[in-house]
Amino acid sequence: MMLTAHTKLRWIYFALTILTITAGLLTRSSYMPRPSFLATYAGDTLWALMIFWAFAFVAPRSASWKIALAALAFCFAIEFSQLYQADWANAIRSHTIGALVFGRGFLASDLICYSTGIFIGWLLQKCMAAGHQNIK
């Protein structure tokens, strides 16, 4: 059974998503010593990178810039949603999974982390595409 190029890409994006989730959880873990700068910003940067890979998985034929723009809009929407502090929303955010997905409170610095993570994803995807072109 031959896999199509887009199916192969999906597997790559799936693996990158899982690796990024693992790295992000490690940045929040007490098992891995890290400088305070990384402890503060790496998790949010990796979260946005994971969103980029997930969007690339869903739409492997889309242009890199479209994936980046969609991922950035999603991440920014989640961050700005944290300005909404209704009891039901805070109840979701009070659980570990809810906090990991929706965050707890708005931080402008998170917008910079998200932009950085998505830029890294865009750049890596462009490098992967360039490497693929050189292999042909």
Characterization of this structure:
There is one protein chain. By secondary structure, this protein is an all-alpha fold. The chain has one domain (5-135). The chain is built from six helices and no strands. Helix 2 packs across helix 3 (64-81) and helix 2 (36-58) crosses helix 6. The protein is globular. Keywords: Membrane, Transmembrane, Transmembrane helix.
Summarize the structure.
The chain is mainly alpha-helical and 136 residues long. The protein has helices at 5-27, 36-58, 64-81, 87-93, 96-102, 108-135.
User: What's the rounded overall pLDDT mean?
Assistant: 88
Largest sheet: none
The total count of helices amounts to 6
Unreliable spans? none
Q: Name the helix and strand elements from N-terminus to C-terminus, one letter apiece.
A: HHHHHH
What coarse outline follows from CA principal-axis ratios? Answer: globular
What structural class do helix, strand and pairing data support?
mainly alpha
Query: What share of the residues does DSSP label as strand, in percent?
Result: under 5%
Helix content: over 70%
Count all strands and give the number.
0
Number of domains: 1
